[in-house]
Structures are given as structure tokens and as C-alpha cells.
What does this fold into?
Amino acid sequence: MGEPTASTELLERLAQHRTLGEAPRAELEWLVEHGTVRHIEPGDVLTRAGTPVTSLFIVLAGHFAIQVERGFGPRKIFEWTGGDVGGMLPYSRMSKAPGEVIVSEPGDILAVDSRFFPEMAVRCPWVTATLVHVMVDRARVFTSTALQDEKMASLGRLAAGLAHELNNPASAAARSAGRIEDGLARAEAASRALGAARLTAEQQAAVDNIRRVCLENDAPLLTAIERSDREDALAVWLEEHDLSPEHAAALTDACVSTKMLDALNDTLPASAVGTAVEWIAANCAIHTLVGEVQRASSRIHHLVAAIKRFTYMDKPGVPEAVDIEQGLRDTIIVLGNKARGKDVAITIKVDPNLPKGHGFGGELNQIWSNLIDNAIDAAPPNGHIEVGASCGPGTIVVRIVDNGAGVPAEIRQKIFDPFFTTKPVGQGTGLGLEIAMKLALHNGGDIEVDSVPGRTEFRVIVPAR
It folds into this structure.
């Protein structure tokens, strides 16, 4: 017997291959005939992100993995060892590598150029069918990781926006609550002093009337100039009557005017005017602080409620009636901080008789979030976004329009492709629009886009209840 040839040794290695080893002998021989053995070393790059993938890789030994950049650093999605297959697979629609494929352990691969795939489909039906199953499994894993990554990216944006939204009212509540204690001490001291003044019933009624004005009125909506003028006038009145001007701010917030103070001055003895003003100012200050705490707490409550509705917490994972308008408004609340940071105005207009939608509420909100977030990115500073919802024949049409530069015609057909993005590295995953389209289809809907410079409109069509 002669020495075994390289082809015979390769054939035996293929026969031991975990994925393709059970193929008929003739099909393995075809692979040997049409493939090229390639030795790989650690650090070798088999494919680079964005470059064409032209070969099937049958891994005989070694280890390599693909790392995909999805906006928050490279992430390992797949890895291959001896017995696996990778690279380009028959009937795959992948044209370019989504990431870097880098070797970490030395070994050998058998590379079969994709130009032989038509012949392989005829000559190697068992191998082709097996590779198609591998492709389906790979696509399922790839899609699930892409969806998870986009969810995590959305969660990061949501958390950042919510932190900013909650910070202002939380800080206001804490600040006002801290000042209430000092205000209560002042009010108690002023109450004792007013009691010691032994006012008549008529005089006490005059004091109570001004305090009632404070309790029954919220702080007036004044411009900065109007407020400054009113506070200055009160400070002047207080100084003219030998009283501390520090009470002017509290009296301004309480809607107290110099005319009211003149009436009080005419009613009370001169020795009691200062005590009465201090008592009124202390009580009005407490009222104002309590109002600030209530408003801040209410803002926090509404934000948390919006987030709960937005995420559909405690909701069953089945299609149901969905309030489209509420979902859009909650999304605008969630993204409000980002829009304000760019001075982008968002308006919403919804048909008054808009029916309920039908689908998965959390998924629909994810669509609104992705599209409005993209619109904010696309809009120029001081730009404008219009969000609308109207009735269609058995459908609801949601429109999101921005006045940005628009989507060039040459890339319009690519914007829903996975990993396609025009944003700088680290600022976009290239998955937002692809995920939005998949979610729209999963909910029985679709997404359309029209764009010219200065106006880009995304239309989401979803079933009505």
C-alpha cells in the first residue's frame, strides 16, 4: 500500500467532522476537491467588518470568533471550534461581514468559495441541507442577540433620560422640604409674637384676610421682569416702614400687594405691623414650600407612571387593546430630556376619535421610542418634530416627521438593514430601524418612509382594535 495522500488525510478529517462527518462519501470528496485548506494562527483576521464574505469555512481545528460593534463596544456574538461551520452559507442573504472574525487558537479550515454553491446544491444535497439548518439556527441566535442589544441600548437611553427627568423634581422636593423646617420655626416665633400683640377681632381679621389670599392663590405666572418689579416694590414698602426687606420674596410668591399692606398698616397699631407682616410672610413661605414639594412629588409620580405604562409592566405578553395616543405621549415624556437638551420641540396631534390599536403594547412603544429618538438625532438644533396619529381603513397610521437634512435617496433602501447607520461610531447600533420594522411586522403592521431635505416622515401602520 502506498503512503496516504493529502487528499485522503483531508477526507478522513472531514469524516470525523461533527457537523458534516455523516455526509455521503461522494459529497465529502466533492468538498475536498473544491475546497482549499488554510492554516490559521492567533491574531489572523478571517473577515473584516463591512467587507464581502465569499467563502464557507469548515473548521477542522482551532478557534475563532466574531465581534460586532453595536454602539457600546465590540461584543462576541459567535465562536467556532473544530467541527463547526462558518463564513458564507448557501442561500444566506448576508453579503458583508457584520463584524471582525479573529482567530484565537491555531488550527486549519477548509474554505469553499461561494461561486461553487450552485454546483454544491446539486452534487451535495445532504451537505447543503445541513448547512441551511446551520444558517437558520445562526440567524435565530443573531436576531435574538441583536434584539437584546437594542433593548439594552434603549434601556440605557431610557435610564439616562429618566435620571435627568427625575433629578430636577427630586432635588426641588428635597430642597423645599429642608427649608420647611426653618420656616416652621419662624412661623412659630411669629405666632407667639402676634399673640402677644393682643389684637382686636377686627385687627386679627385684617391679618387673616391677607393670609387667606396667600393660601387661596398659587404663585402668579409672572415674567422675570414683572416678578422683579413687584418684589422691588414690596421691598421698598417694607424699608419705608422700617421692616426687613427679606420678606419681599415670600410676599411676592403669595400674591400680596403693597395695596394690601397699606390697608393692614391703616388697621393695625404701628407696633404690631412688623409682627403681622412677619407672621404673614412666614405662613406664606411655608405654603409656597409645601406647594413646591407637592408639585415635585406629583411630577415624579407622573414620570414613574409614564415609565410603567411605557414598559407595560405587569401586563400579559399577549396581543391586546393598546392606547396608541397614551403610548406616544409616554414616549415623548421619556425622551423629553434629550429633546430639550437639543432645543427640539415635539408636538403631537391625534384624531379625537382614534380607536384602540391591537398588538403588544410594549413592542409598539419600542417602535415609537426608536423612531422619535432617531428624529431627535436628525432634527437640527431648535428643530421641530411632529407626531400624529390618524385612522385608516381598519388601521391606525402614526406619523413621525422631523425637519432634518433628510435621508439621501441612495441609502433609503438600506436604512432598515441590520447594522446600517449613518451615525458616528459609538453613537448608533444600526439596529434601531431594523428592530422597529421587525416589531411592526410582528404586530401585523408596516413602516413606510418619505424623505426630502427638510422633511422626513416615517409612517407606522398598525391594526386597529
Observations:
- The CA atoms of residues 64 and 103 lie 4 Å apart.
- The two ends are 77 Å apart (CA to CA).
- DSSP finds 13 helices and 13 strands in the chain.
- The chain has a mean pLDDT of 83.
